[in-house]
Amino acid sequence: MSVSKMEEGKVFVVSGPSGSGKGTVIGILQEIYTGMEVAVSATTRAPREGEAEGVNYFYKTKAEFEELIKNDEVLEYTIYNGNYYGTLKSEAERITEKGKDLVLEIEVNGCGQMKRKLGSRCVAIMLTAPDSKELERRLRGRGTETEDEIQRRLRRALDEVKEVTKYDYLLINENGKADKCAEDLLAVITAERLKADRAEEYLRENYPEI
User: Fold this and answer.
1) 3, 146, 161, 182 - which has most CB atoms within 10 Å?
2) pLDDT in tens, the chain (210 residues)
3) Spatial distance between the Cα atoms of 17 and 106, rounded to a whole number of angstroms
4) What pTM did the predictor assign?
């Protein structure tokens, strides 16, 4: 059952370079904020053992996914290892129309797609490390990649950070302070929920004499 426009949730897109800790921060946010939900993405990748339709992904054929794109039913998508991955418009509507906020961890390119599709309904948040040296330290700290791979990931990370001027908010994930960063993210969500962009409807519903 959908709620009124006044009560509808918003879409919050969180982007950041590898090493920024955005996955950790969003995980903490889920623990402290019950008003959010994470969308199930769609993919053309085959299900792996133990995965379930509508739980891990919505599994589509390539033809089905491309038809969804053609019909403007995909808010953002990317291609990775030959497979499509994306966010369905129907999934976003399912969440926001019941009053929940949709929080998505999406790459910079995907964020641009979302902003173009949703306009002011989409709030874009860039989350990153304090500085480039710390970002490099975090990338090297994994100890699983060659020097060439690290340099490639670092160049990409720096390119992504340059896009911050296109975002609505910038959050800095300081060392050992992921909890504080999650609280800052929640503050952004709260502020956006309190904006007066739905004032006209509020007045119609609650002050009909005006």
Assistant:
1) 182
2) 567 666 889 999 999 998 899 999 999 999 999 999 988 999 999 999 999 999 999 999 999 999 999 999 999 999 989 999 999 999 999 999 999 999 999 888 889 888 888 888 899 999 999 999 998 898 888 777 889 988 998 999 999 999 999 999 999 999 999 999 999 999 999 999 888 777 788 888 889 888
3) 10
4) 0.85
Q: Which two tokens stand for residue 177?
A: 């302070």
Q: Can you list the pairs that 153-162 forms with residues at least 24 positions away whose Cβ atoms lie under 8 Å?
A: 153/18, 153/19, 156/17, 156/18, 157/17, 157/18, 157/19, 158/17, 158/132, 160/15, 160/16, 160/17, 160/107, 160/108, 161/17, 161/126, 161/128, 161/132, 161/135
> Where residue 20 sits, what CATH number does that domain have?
3.40.50.300
Q: How many domains does the chain have?
A: 1
Identify the domain containing residue 182 by its residue range. Answer: 5-38+100-206
